[in-house]
């Protein structure tokens, strides 16, 4: 028991010694330096207060937030961040917009939760004023803090940017960082907007996040009047894996728009659901050669032997397709039969492989 008491006294003494000095200079001495030193020396003193656990340190630093010398002011901001000063949160948050100094951002991240309500308000104002740069800056700070209320506000702000070609990619990247916390505000925005471009951006972001909680919202749009939205929903249902998706995608195979049908077929291949094989086989005689080709592709993904003979029959389909190479981005020509060849290779059924060998196809 005496040993434990001795250790606690020793630990307390160590903390007190550590907290009252920095780089060999005592707290009271740093106060003297701050009062009488040069600007460079005062800066060192302000920095020191960020490392010393002294009650006075916070109040001394707070007095420098409005200092005319910017270097002293931003050093004080940095140190208040080191102390995670709740008292400084509001004043530092309102400095966003006045200065781009990264010490403001770092301090707010270190202060954390006490900063969030002020940052949320600043983000709302940035949205009203269409100040995208400031809004993105505040969003990055809130993403680093990771408070739920901040994530909702950031998601709401970023969702608006999904309809902008300039800002769409960075907004999507940040929403993906937020992840599942972005699903609810994104889903709400999808239901409230009349902007089809924004709807497409939200659907694609939900697809990239890949959380099944978005599915019920996406199902509401599989019969949307805009074929571009239906096509993107089909794409999303292929990325967010769930057995529930197959019924919707099979229904979308009957869509009047070929792009929607094509995407539904590709997504069924991504799900690798063997229950879809019979429906995919029915599209192998479609009058559109692209539909026939993607059906062969998806059957190859599922690897069901029921597709072997229909794929062998497709080996005689020498219709030429113009497709875009996803790597080069260039338009290239390909035969429908080439999709059947690749599908048979993936299925690896002896009947298909023997037929390829008989035809001299390697």
Would you kindly provide a written description of the structure presented here, covering whatever features stand out?
With 362 residues, this protein is mostly helical. It has helices at 2-19, 27-36, 39-49, 55-62, 70-82, 89-93, 102-111, 113-128, 132-145, 148-161, 168-178, 183-192, 196-209, 215-219, 227-239, 245-252, 258-271, 277-281, 289-302, 308-314, 336-347, 350-358, and strands at residues 21-22, 25-26, 320-324, 331-335. The strands form two sheets. The chain has a two-stranded antiparallel ribbon. A two-stranded antiparallel sheet has the order 3-4. Strand 1 and strand 2 (25-26) form a beta hairpin. 36% of the residues are buried.
Short structural description:
Helices cover 67% and strands 4% of the residues. It has 22 helices and 4 strands. Strand 3 and strand 4 (331-335) form a beta hairpin.
List the helices and strands and how they pair.
Elements: H1 2-19, E1 21-22, E2 25-26, H2 27-36, H3 39-49, H4 55-62, H5 70-82, H6 89-93, H7 102-111, H8 113-128, H9 132-145, H10 148-161, H11 168-178, H12 183-192, H13 196-209, H14 215-219, H15 227-239, H16 245-252, H17 258-271, H18 277-281, H19 289-302, H20 308-314, E3 320-324, E4 331-335, H21 336-347, H22 350-358
Antiparallel strand pairs: 1-2, 3-4
